[in-house]
Design a protein that fits this description.
The complex is a heterodimer of chains A (632) and B (398). Chain A has 632 residues and is α+β, with helices and mostly antiparallel strands. Chain A is 44% helix and 21% strand. The chains are: A alpha+beta (632), B alpha+beta (398).
Chain lengths: 632, 398
């Protein structure tokens, strides 16, 4: 008879517990990282009365959580990728908005600059049009500075976020290692029963961590979790953590790298490829720095072409034109790990073959080698690195001084700082060289019918450029320059002397004289301004295939495509991630309807068990009463 | 697959974010009337629009350039037409002075008038444009090109000629220098010039000179026609070799080696006339020579012949100068035509470019509004669906 009570009470206890678990599920339906729990009920050991064995009720043998390692892993991996793309998208979107469809006003200010050259060509003696040109030069410089300042601000922002991510990763690592210790202890104490709440917490931390950085994990038999990042650098080993730190880049102290210790040699930035941190690093390496370099490439080309055109012409005062722009030029930085004081200096020798890449120059086995930073490919070098024979590659000229040691490295940045430091340095409008350096004339006494072209400058550095030269025809078919040897005359052929070039065409007569002399005083001449205005469409970059304004359009398209590509990838990854979330939820999530049904089920079971207890009680009363009747 | 309320919530929010972002982008497109506002929305079109905008601005700049050239060339043209008128009246004066009935006083009055015309032509040759640049100074456009002198005027400019870009790869000169317009005027008939010797004592006066192929081609040599007797001449080349000889009666033409010279009057024995290749003589020197000849005066037949010779040489040279001015004006006119043509080409080009830009960048309102309506409908439907499904809960029935 006592069986009924024992069985009923065990059932009441079990169902009470089951209702508690369901209530807990309902209570945590919205708790991040909560995994749905369920009670495991087992029959209690039966009692035998000799002939038959009767069940002894129900026992709670455990409360388990619905957890799929595979689904959770899949979600973590997907979150890492999504984190990376989202961080990247954050920057590409900002750049996309900043640059818009006009490179932040860069294209219109460049257009204005070349138009101003045209206006100077229309009116070379007008101070107003010259002043307007200087204003436009200033505006171009400001546009370049603004565009690169905005990109540099993104890099600074990135540094801040890298530091914040590293701090958060360290904090999560500490919490995971603390949970590891508790889980090991708790599992031991409860005879192998899993501490569900602690596991949920640890899994949630891991999920948070995977949004920041790509991680791999292993679980020890005692329940402790080991966490590795990058190429297997341990972050958490059981109860131990290895804190990450940020260290300055060996070449550029303003850019932070991730290291497993304060030693700059343990930099692991390269192996962090996903998660928010991976996204920040790739935004810097693949979006921001290349954009800075490309802007710098255009700024370098602009500065060089405009300044060299200036140097070929004469200003209002008859002097060769002064530089309009200044750029800091190419930069070579020694690695902070170089042991000796060898220095490299680099200059742009040919804008046409200049690229927007960075390079690393290394000294090993007695020779220098150059690799392109973007893809690590090797670039052929010629020369020996001395002043007389500089190392040359990709339009660069590199001179080294000092005795290098094996392993020395230099970062060569041909264009990185050119845009941010482009300055319009000319302030005197009379110093704009609108006029050509030489002028030509035919003597009025000439009896032949030949004319001479206006003359163009081939080499502005020729010391005799402005010396008057006389081309005298010694017969109808020969001429002599400055009384020198006779030269055969070709109609329209080039005559190059003293760094200038003219063409004489037509039918000259014996004794005809043509003169080429300095154009000092020729303030109404506009040949140089005309040439400068025409540089707008001249192929300057990419081996003479791309104009300066064309390069700006290419930057706009390039950044736009990059942003579009990242947007697409991010959208796709979001869908993948949503699927992974659905998978995890499908396994571990709390469905309230399901819980309501369970609640009803357990409630009814509870009621039934209570009813059984009542019946047991009534059976017992019946028995007592009948016994009382017999003896009373 | 089990669907949980949390998943429902998560998926609903994600969906709403996407729908709202799309709606906002369409709204943005409509309010800005642009198919894309950032390069990422259409990278290729953004690059192309940038290129088209550059080309458009450049084409507009070319029009600005050609307007500037047009102004200068028009000023030059009207200046040259004034000079032509002045020269024409000078020519009339010369013809008037060439008649024998005039007194020395009359001639002197004509000389004074001619001198005034000369001063006026020098003034016109020193015309400045609206920016204070001299039209005919070449590159030295800020220095006064001509200063009057005893022999006419000296030129302080150079032979520079400024080009203005009026289209890609096309430039047009926005002026002409003083040497070309005023100084490089050939003497005589443009091929050769005949002149009497200063020591002539007869009344021989040179008439028309022509290049005639009748007796061979002119070889550019210098010849002298000498009268060995009043009715006999011989022609010798620069090496004093006899070329031809013959007899002369007044009004005869003397022809040799492509040269044909008509003589009037009676040269005396020993008189000679030279034939030499044309050289360049400045317009101002021509006018000065005329003024000087008119002032010499004298009433002897010899003096009259000298005057007649000088005036007829001047007339030849004035004709050459007028010719030269016409040539320059024709060239200016051709340049103005080129400019007008280019301006209309640029206009067409700009319309094309604007059409291209607009086709890439302007919004198709009809389709954008349709999209907006669709997106709006989808969003409201999603919101409604969410509220309906959220109402479903077993707990409600407990």
């Amino acid at each position: 008879m006592s069986n009924v009570f024992g069985i009923s009470v065990s059932a009441l206890r079990a169902f009470q517990a089951a209702i508690n678990v369901v209530s807990n599920n309902v209570a945590n339906a919205s708790t991040p990282g909560y995994d749905r729990e369920s009670v495991t009920l087992t029959e209690a050991a039966p009692q035998s009365n000799g002939t038959a064995s009767v069940g002894a009720g129900v026992a709670i043998t455990g409360i388990s959580r619905a957890y799929s390692h595979a689904a959770a892993n899949q979600l973590n991996t997907s979150q890492s990728t999504l984190g990376q793309l989202t961080a990247l998208q954050n920057y590409t979107t900002q750049i996309d908005n900043l640059f818009g469809t006009t490179a932040g006003g860069l294209s219109s200010s460049l257009q204005g600059f070349y138009s101003a050259w045209s206006n100077v060509a229309n009116n070379p003696t007008s101070t107003a049009s010259r002043q307007a040109l200087l204003g436009q030069a200033q505006s171009v410089a400001t546009s370049f500075q603004n565009a690169s300042a905005q990109l540099n601000a993104l890099n600074t922002d990135g540094n801040g976020r890298i530091s914040a991510d590293v701090a958060q990763i360290n904090s999560i690592a500490t919490q995971v290692s603390a949970l590891n210790k508790q889980i090991v202890v708790s599992t031991g104490q409860n005879g192998g029963q899993q501490p569900n709440e602690l596991l949920d917490q640890r899994d949630q931390l891991l999920s948070n961590l995977s949004q920041l950085v790509n991680v791999t994990t292993t679980t020890d038999s005692n329940g402790a979790l080991n966490v590795f990042i990058g190429n297997g650098q341990p972050l958490v080993l059981q109860g131990q953590t290895t804190a990450l730190t940020t260290v300055p880049n060996q070449f550029n102290a303003s850019q932070l790298e991730i290291s497993t210790s304060a030693l700059s040699g343990n930099v692991i930035s390269g192996s962090i490829t996903s998660g928010d941190l991976g996204g920040l690093l790739s935004a810097r390496a693949e979006v921001i720095n290349p954009a800075l370099n490309q802007l710098g490439q255009v700024a370098t080309a602009l500065s060089q072409t405009v300044n060299s055109q200036q140097a070929q012409g004469l200003d209002l005062k008859g002097q060769f034109g002064a530089a309009i722009f200044s750029t800091p030029g190419a930069r070579a930085v020694s690695s902070s790990r170089n042991v000796d004081a060898t220095t490299a200096s680099v200059s742009v020798a040919d804008v046409g073959t200049l690229t927007a890449d960075d390079y690393v120059l290394s000294y090993n086995a007695g020779a220098y080698s150059l690799t392109r930073s973007s893809d690590g490919s090797s670039v052929a070098l010629s020369g020996s690195g001395t002043v007389a024979s500089p190392l040359t590659a990709d339009g660069l000229s590199i001179v080294l001084s000092g005795t290098p040691a094996a392993g020395d490295q230099f970062l060569i940045q041909p264009t990185a700082t050119a845009a941010s430091s482009l300055k319009a340095v000319l302030t005197d409008p009379t110093k704009i060289a609108a006029a050509g350096a030489v002028q030509s004339s035919a003597s009025n006494a000439n009896t032949g019918h030949a004319s001479i072209s206006a003359g163009s400058v081939l080499d502005a550095s020729n010391p005799n450029l402005l010396t008057t030269a006389t081309i005298q025809f010694t017969s109808a078919t020969t001429y002599s320059v400055n009384g020198g040897a006779n030269v055969g005359y070709t109609d329209g052929g080039n005559i190059a002397v003293n760094g200038w070039e003219v063409q004489i065409s037509g039918a000259p007569a014996n004794g005809d004289v043509f003169t080429v002399k300095s154009n000092v005083g020729g303030t109404g001449d506009n040949r140089n301004a005309l040439a400068a205005a025409n540089q707008q469409t001249a192929g300057v970059l990419g081996g003479g295939t791309t104009s300066i304004t064309g390069a700006v359009s290419a930057i706009i398209t390039g950044l736009g495509s990059q942003a579009q590509q990242i947007n697409t990838a991010q959208t796709a990854q979001t869908a993948i991630n949503n699927q992974a979330v659905a998978n995890v939820q499908s396994v571990s999530g709390v469905n309230l309807d399901e819980e309501a049904a369970s609640l009803l089920q357990w409630q009814q079971a509870y009621q039934a068990a209570a009813q059984a207890l009542t019946i047991g009680n009534s059976l017992f009363t019946t028995l007592i009463n009948s016994v009382n009747g017999t003896y009373s | 697959m089990r669907v949980t309320q949390a998943l429902n919530q998560f998926q609903f929010l994600a969906q709403i974010h996407t729908l709202e972002a799309n709606l906002s982008q369409t709204q943005n497109q409509i309010s800005s009337n642009q198919a894309f506002t950032t390069a990422s929305q259409n990278p290729t079109a953004a690059g192309s629009v940038n290129n088209y905008n550059q080309a458009l601005a450049q084409s507009q700049q070319y029009v600005t350039n050609s307007n500037s050239a047009q102004t200068r060339l028009s000023t030059e043209d009207s200046t040259l037409s004034h000079i032509q008128l002045q020269l024409q009246s000078l020519r009339d004066l010369a013809l008037q002075a060439n008649t024998s009935t005039l007194s020395a006083q009359d001639r002197s009055a004509i000389a004074t008038q001619a001198a005034q015309i000369q001063a006026s032509i020098v003034g016109l040759a020193n015309t400045q444009d609206g920016n204070g640049e001299y039209l005919f100074g070449g590159f030295s456009s800020q220095a006064q090109p001509f200063t009057q002198s005893v022999s006419g005027a000296t030129y302080n400019g150079d032979q520079g000629q400024r080009q203005v870009q009026i289209a890609a790869g096309q430039t047009v000169a926005d002026g002409d220098n003083g040497d070309t317009v005023f100084n490089q005027v050939p003497t005589g008939n443009g091929t050769f010039a005949a002149a009497p010797a200063a020591t002539n004592t007869g009344t021989g006066v040179l008439g028309a000179t022509t290049v005639s192929a009748a007796a061979g081609n002119y070889d550019g040599g210098t010849y002298s026609i000498s009268f060995t007797a009043p009715g006999t001449y011989e022609v010798r080349d620069s090496a004093n070799a006899l070329v031809t000889s013959g007899s002369y009666t007044p009004g005869d033409s003397i022809s040799f080696r492509g040269v044909q010279v008509t003589l009037n009057g009676q040269p005396a024995s020993g008189d000679s006339f030279s034939v030499a290749p044309s050289t360049n003589q400045s317009l101002f020197a021509t006018v000065q020579n005329l003024v000087t000849a008119l002032r010499v005066g004298g009433s002897t037949s010899q003096a009259t012949a000298q005057l007649n010779n000088a005036v007829s040489a001047s007339l030849n040279n004035i004709d050459q100068a007028l010719d030269n001015l016409s040539t320059v004006r024709a060239s200016v006119g051709a340049r103005l035509n080129t400019i007008t043509t280019q301006q209309s080409v640029a206009g067409t080009q700009q319309i094309q470019l604007q059409t291209s830009i607009s086709s890439l960048q302007s919004l198709d309102y009809a389709s954008a509004l349709t999209t907006l309506t669709q997106q709006n409908t989808t969003l409201s439907a999603a919101l409604q669906a969410y509220t309906i499904t959220q109402g479903l809960s077993l707990f409600k029935f407990l």
